[in-house]
Specification:
It is a single chain. This protein is α/β, with parallel strands linked by helices. The protein folds into two domains: 225 residues, Rossmann fold (3-Layer(aba) Sandwich), CATH 3.40.50.1480; 156 residues, Rossmann fold, CATH 3.40.50.720. Helices cover 45% and strands 16% of the residues. Helix 8 crosses helix 9 and helix 8 runs antiparallel to helix 15. The structure holds adenine. Adenine (ADE) binds next to helix 3 and helix 8.
Length: 417
């Protein structure tokens, strides 16, 4: 069988969700129309390891419209939408994904995508690339190049390149302005709040909301939490980011201090054990812990387990831990990315831009014969095109430079007048 999903009978419901997303993704719609005519991805075998959501389904169908044969697996054991992948499977996509996978099942799906023999990889977190490079090296020479969707993945791939381990070129879609400044900031900002609310339904106004980290994603979370009326504390290790948080009007302090006063904690760092045993020990009764970074290592869950004497699932995506000293702490979505596990990930409108970047990068890879191994930036004209089309789709007009202004910007001779 060319798919494995939880229940193929969910396809009609998934199809409606995909239609809903598609109608909110105008940039991808335009690319899809062109791809249908030009078939720039004819002959491409595309292996994708992405969060299997309705937005991803729209991307998959855009790549297929361009002539690619796509195989898809999820990029997190808890983020797959079973109805959406059923719809993809029912219309012929090779898809291997279901929600609530064991680690073994997760990698079984990654390996099915590798069996497809991808010539281009599209990864979110670099599990596909790292599996190819460590356990499936017999398929490596088929791959021309790949792209990476998320900060954590780009960090891993740059480390692979530094160690001389990376064997093919990767385009860092995450780092490009039309991705990072919009998806990471506004997307993560909104979807993280959405995940926390769906998992807990607590009031955010008046709560002490601790955001651990102040990268692009964390800035979005801190800003949106403030917008909901929370008193937001930011913790950081990078002095420049901390300074920026201070000047953005947030209270900044060490996590050890914030741990004593926070009601809600969200990790958004990409690092490991940022909320550690010593922080958990001093948290208030009733504190909630969530993670919005890619992997479930940011909160030290084994330490939480060790300090507790029991746990109960109170609601979907919310576990109560009864601590040995009598307090109760709550962990959302098992410490996996709360925005995708407890909600639907970023809204379609912002994934429109990220996935337009992905589709155009796949086309760029296919057209470029001589890419060398390394980590590449997205070409600037792709960014300009995506932002222009997005503005047009929103009905927003902008100004143009006059010839005189263009010349002025290019010259150095005119100073004080
Ligand atoms: N990453 C964050 N939000 C997403 C979404 N809606 N679909 C796919 N990947 C995502």
């Amino acid at each position: 069988m060319s798919y494995k999903v939880k229940d193929i009978g969910l396809a009609p419901r998934g199809e409606l969700l995909i239609e809903w997303a598609r109608d909110h993704m105008p940039v991808l719609a335009l690319i899809r129309s062109r791809f249908e005519l030009e078939k720039p991805l004819a002959g491409v075998k595309l292996g994708a390891c992405l969060h299997a959501t309705k937005e991803t389904a729209v991307l998959v169908r855009t790549l297929e419209a361009g002539g690619a044969e796509v195989a898809l697996c999820g990029s997190n054991p808890l983020s797959t939408h079973d109805d959406v992948v059923a719809a993809l499977a029912a219309t012929g996509t090779k898809v291997y994904a279901w929600r609530e996978q064991t680690t073994e099942e997760y990698y079984w799906c990654v390996n099915k995508v590798i069996d497809h023999g991808p010539t281009i990889t599209m990864d979110d977190g670099a599990d596909l690339v790292s599996t190819l490079h460590s356990k499936r090296t017999e398929k490596l020479n088929l791959v021309k190049a790949g792209s990476e969707e998320t900060t954590t993945g780009v960090i891993r791939l740059r480390a692979m390149h530094r160690d001389g381990a990376l064997k093919y070129p990767i385009v860092a879609v995450n780092d490009t302005p039309t991705k990072r400044m919009f998806d990471n900031r506004y997307g993560t900002g909104q979807s993280t709040i959405d995940g926390i609310l769906r998992a807990s339904s607590v009031m955010l106004a008046g709560k002490v909301f601790v955001v651990v980290g102040y990268g692009w994603c964390a800035r979005g979370v801190a800003t949106r939490a403030r917008g909901m009326g929370s008193h937001v504390i930011v913790t950081e290790v990078d002095p420049m980011k901390a300074l920026e948080a201070v000047m953005d009007g947030f209270q900044v302090m060490p996590l050890m201090e914030a741990a004593k006063v926070g009601d809600i904690f969200v990790t958004v760092t990409g690092d490991t054990k940022v909320i550690d045993e010593q922080h958990i020990r001093v948290m208030k009764d009733g504190a909630m812990l969530a993670n919005s970074g890619h992997f479930n290592v940011e909160i030290n869950i084994p330490a939480l387990e060790k300090l507790s004497k029991g746990k109960r699932r109170m609601r979907p995506d919310l576990d109560e831990y009864q601590m040995k000293n009598g307090r109760k702490l709550y962990l959302l979505a098992e410490g996996r990315l709360v925005n995708l596990a407890a909600a639907e990930g970023h809204p379609s409108e912002v994934m429109d831009m990220s996935f337009a970047d992905q589709a155009l990068v796949a086309e760029w890879i296919q057209k470029n014969k001589d890419l060398k191994t390394g980590v590449y930036d997205v070409p600037r004209d792709i960014d300009e095109m995506v932002s222009r089309i997005k503005l047009q789709s929103m009905g927003v007009m902008i100004d143009k430079l006059t010839d005189e202004q263009r010349k002025y910007l290019m010259s150095w001779s005119q100073g004080t007048v």
